Amino acid sequence: xxxxxxxxxxxxxxxxxxxxxxxxxxxxxxxxxxxxxxxxxxxxxxxxxxxxxxxxxxxxxxxxxxxxxxxxxxxxxxxxxxxxxxxxxxxxxxxxxxxxxxxxxxxxxxxxxxxxxxxxxxxxxxxxxxxxxxxxxxxxxxxxxxxxxxxxxxxxxxxxxxxxxxxxxxxxxxxxxxxxxxxxxxxxxxxxxxxxxxxxxxxxxxxxxxxxxxxxxxxxxxxxxxxxxxxxxxxxxxxxxxxxxxxxxxxxxxxxxxxxxxxxxxxxxxxxxxxxxxxxxxxxxxxxxxxxxxxxxxxxxxxxxxxxxxxxxxxxxxxxxxxxxxxxxxxxxxxxxxxxxxxxxxxxxxxxxxxxxxxxxxxxxxxxxxxxxxxxxxxxxxxxxxxxxxxxxxxxxxxxxxxxxxxxxxxxxxxxxxxxxxxxxxxxxxxxxxxxxxxxxxxxxxxxxxxxxxxxxxxxxxxxxxxxxxxxxxxxxxxxxxxxxxxxxxxxxxxxxxxxxxxxxxxxxxxxxxxxxxxxxxxxxxxxxxxxxxxxxxxxxxxxxxxxxxxxxxxxxxxxxxxxxxxxxxxxxxxxxxxxxxxxxxxxxxxxxxxxxxxxxxxxxxxxxxxxxxxxxxxxxxxxxxxxxxxxxxxxxxxxxxxxxxxxxxxxxxxxxxx
Length: 659
Ligand SMILES: Nc1ncnc2c1ncn2[C@@H]1O[C@H](COP(=O)(O)OP(=O)(O)OP(=O)(O)O)[C@@H](O)[C@H]1O
What we know:
The protein is α/β, with parallel strands linked by helices. It has 3 domains: 204 residues, P-loop containing nucleotide triphosphate hydrolases (Rossmann fold, 3-Layer(aba) Sandwich); 73 residues, no CATH class; 276 residues, no CATH class. The protein is elongated, with a radius of gyration of 32 Å.
C-alpha cells in the first residue's frame, strides 16, 4: 500500500501552488471595475460581478450526490458530494474516465436526470433555486438527433423559426441562422443534406456542429455540452472546441459553458478555464485547468515530459484496465486504485478544496440580489404548428422509407389483388370473394402501416431532444405530425385502393368507392396513431415492430372474421377486445358499404334463390345492423382522435415524471 505524498509536497501545493493561483485569480477579479461599488454593496470584496457578469449565469452546486436505485439490490452511487461552480465567460470542462459520471453531473446540473435516479445536495442558479427562463440555457446531447433528410441550412432555419419569437421577422430569423452556421464554420456544408443510415451526408464533426448551432440560436447564457468532440479527430476537436470557447465571450454577453469531454488534446486543454476531474463519481480535482498539472506533480504524479497533461490525468485515474496502467506507472509500484486514493486525499487536504465552498457561498451571497431572468418568448403556437408541419412534410417527402416505398408495395399488392380477384361478377359465388377481398385490404394493407415505425422512432428521437430543450409545445408536434401525414396517407389509400376496387369490380358507384377509400384511409391513420404511442413507449425499432405487430395481430384475430362475433368467448375476447379493435368497425363499415341494399341471385341447388345484402350481413357475418356504415366510420375517426390525444397525454406525463 503506497503512502500519501510527503507532507512537504502537500504543503508546497497549498502554500505556493494552488493557493497562489487562487489569490492571483481573486486579485485579478477585484481589480475589475464594478458599477455597483458606489452603491455601497459588498461586491468589491469578491469582485467577480462585473457589468457583463450581471447579465450572465452563475451556476453553483454543493454536496451534490446522485444515486440510482437498483431495486432490491439497494442503490448505486454515481456522484458523491461534489461541490463546484461555473461562471460567466468561462468554460468548465468535466473530465474523467468513461463511466465516471460526467454525463450524470451534466444532467444533474441541467435538471434532466432520469427518473430512476435520486439527487441530494443543492444546485443554485445565481444563488437561488430557480428554473431558468426559456432560451436562457441549452443542452447539446451526446447523440446528434437530427433530421437526416434536411440540408444543414434547412435544419438550422427551421429551428430558428421555431425557437425565435414572432417579433422577429422571417428574414431576421434566416439571417440569425446563417450567421450561426458561419460561426460554427459550416458555410461550405450549408446546402449538403445531413444524411443518416444509408445516405452519406455531412461528416460526424459537422453533425456535432449542426447540433451546437441549433442550440445556440437563442443565444443562451448557459450552455451544456455532452462530449462535443466525441468521434472527432484532434484537428476537428480543436476547431469545434475553440468555436465553443469563443462563444463564451460573444455579442457582449458572457456565457457560462459547461462541457464534458473525453480526451482533449493539449491545445484543446488550454481552452479550459476550470477543470472538474472525476473518478468513480468523486472529485479528484476542481479548479483552474492551468493548475491541474501542478496539482498532479505535487501529489506525486508528475506529467512525463512531452506527454499531453490530460492524457496523463486520465491514464493515472483510469482503473478500467488495471494491468496496463500498473505497467504504465512503472516505478511507482502502486495500483490505480491507490493512485486515485492519493489524489482524492491530496485534493481534500488542499487549500483549494477549502476554497471551493467559500467561493460558492460568495457567489450565492452576491448574486442573490438579482432578479429572475426575463422570460423570452417562443414562436407562437400557430407558427410552431405551421413550421413543424412543413418540416415534417418535407421529411416525409424525401424519406423514401416513410411513404414512397409503402406506396410502391401497396400498388404491387393491389395489382396482385386485382388480378387474383379479377372481375368477380355479381353472382352468388362472388359473395365470398367480395368478403375475402375486403378482409385482405382492411387487414393486411393497414397492418403494413407498421412498416413506417423506424421513421416514427427517428421522429421521436428528434422530438425528444427538442422537447427537452423546450423548442416548442408538445401539442404543436402532435398536430403537425398528424397533418403532415394526411396527404401521403390519402395517396396510399386512393391509388392502391382504386386498383384493388375497380379491377375486381366491387360495388359500382362513386359514393361506394369514396366510402371504401375513406375507410381505408381512416384505418391507416388509426394504425399510425397506435404506432406513435408504441414509439413513445418503446423507442427501439425491433421491440417496437414486435409490439406493434402483436397489437395488430390481436385486434385482427377478434375483428369478427376469423371467429364470428357471437362465437367470440366472453369476457376478454368479446368484451372489451372485440369492441376496441378497429377491425370490427372497418369490416362492418366496408361490408355494409358493399352489401346493404343489394340482391344476389343463384340457380344452384334446384332453382333460383335470392339473397339480400341485409341477410348476408345479419345472418352470415353477424354485423350490427342497429346503425349505418356512417356510424362505423365515425368510430374510426373517433379512434384517430383518441389515440392522438393518448399520445399527447403519454408525452405530457413523461414530462411530469422527469425531475
Ligand atoms: N439512469 C441511470 N440508471 C442506471 N445507471 C445509470 C444511470 N445513469 C448513469 N448510470 C450509471 O452511472 C455511471 C456513470 O454514467 P455516465 O453516463 O454519467 O458516465 P460518463 O462518465 O458520462 O461515461 P462516458 O464517458 O462513457 O459517456 C455508469 O456506470 C452508468 O451506467
